[in-house]
Recover the amino acids of this structure.
């Protein structure tokens, strides 16, 4: 017997409420806001406003900080406590995802792996991630969690086509992302190249050169995320030095930490395109933001076998 829409419910941690509501609209399922209060001593109260027993619960929860991470785990455990039939998690942005490896002899904690394991240990039935920095985190469990990596390449291609650009080239800010960028370029029938980048300290990178294929072309620099903007700005500068006529930035996760927006302004970057995976990101004079909600909704429909 197949489940109906009445058996499904969407909630979110506080960080991803806006995206959760968008996904609910595309799935034609009510969004349920979890009750949240703060006690005087700082402890946090959560409560579900309706019965979750026997229902398929979808939790949308980015983890950009420790509070959001812990809240997601609390929600997963709460769904089990109240006997949800299945607990299905969508993580639009995974915090610490760039820390999936530890440098030899550095005694670092690879928090991309350890934090993801904490989520898996809460025993969700299904976890979907969007445009992961590394797929290594997909395997940070013992085989008892179904995982999925949702790639937004078709949305990115659609967005670039909508811009009706001509004589452009795609550029990867490093060789690690070059295969991903090559795939986008193949779908767009456009040339592509990769910058030569080295990382010499935490949050410190150096971009050395870019191929001359960018000369006289509009450059679209594509990456999975923009954190502080340092390396992608360097890549833009190297492209201009190599003769690019203009530069646009494209990244799924628009973290834009610290003074990054000011850095973009100072370096002549006037357009950044990205998704609504990172909490609080909206279109403005600098950002052109598209939503992953339709893609996530269609993925969840297939996974849950819903009747639409």
């Amino acid at each position: 017997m197949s489940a109906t829409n009445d058996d499904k419910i969407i909630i979110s941690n506080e960080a991803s409420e806006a995206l959760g509501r968008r996904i609910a609209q595309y799935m034609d399922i009510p969004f349920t806001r979890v009750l949240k209060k703060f006690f005087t001593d700082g402890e946090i109260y959560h409560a579900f406003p309706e019965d979750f027993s026997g229902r398929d619960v979808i939790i949308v929860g980015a983890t950009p900080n420790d509070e959001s991470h812990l809240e997601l785990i609390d929600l997963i455990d709460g769904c089990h406590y109240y006997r949800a039939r299945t607990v299905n998690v969508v993580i639009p942005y995974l915090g610490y995802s760039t820390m999936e490896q530890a440098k030899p002899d550095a005694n670092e904690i690879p928090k991309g792996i350890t934090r993801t394991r904490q989520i898996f240990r809460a025993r969700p039935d299904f976890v979907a991630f969007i445009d992961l920095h590394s797929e290594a985190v997909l395997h940070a469990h013992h085989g008892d969690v179904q995982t999925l990596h949702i790639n937004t390449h078709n949305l990115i291609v659609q967005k670039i086509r909508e811009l009706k650009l001509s004589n452009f080239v795609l550029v990867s800010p490093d060789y690690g992302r070059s295969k991903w960028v090559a795939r986008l370029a193949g779908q767009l029938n456009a040339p592509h190249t990769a910058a030569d980048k080295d990382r010499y300290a935490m949050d410190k990178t150096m971009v050395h050169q870019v191929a001359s294929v960018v000369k006289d072309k509009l450059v679209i620099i594509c990456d999975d995320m923009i954190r502080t903007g340092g390396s992608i700005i360097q890549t833009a500068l190297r492209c201009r030095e190599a003769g690019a006529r203009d530069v646009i930035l494209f990244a799924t996760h628009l973290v834009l930490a610290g003074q990054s927006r000011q850095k973009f302004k100072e370096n002549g970057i006037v357009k950044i395109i990205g998704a609504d995976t990172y909490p609080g990101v909206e279109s403005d004079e600098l950002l052109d933001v598209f939503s992953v909600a339709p893609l996530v909704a269609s993925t969840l429909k297939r996974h849950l076998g819903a009747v639409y």
Observations:
- Residues 66-81 form the longest helix (16 residues).
- The two ends are 15 Å apart (CA to CA).
- The chain has two domains: 5-151+293-304, 153-290.
- The longest strand covers residues 218-226.
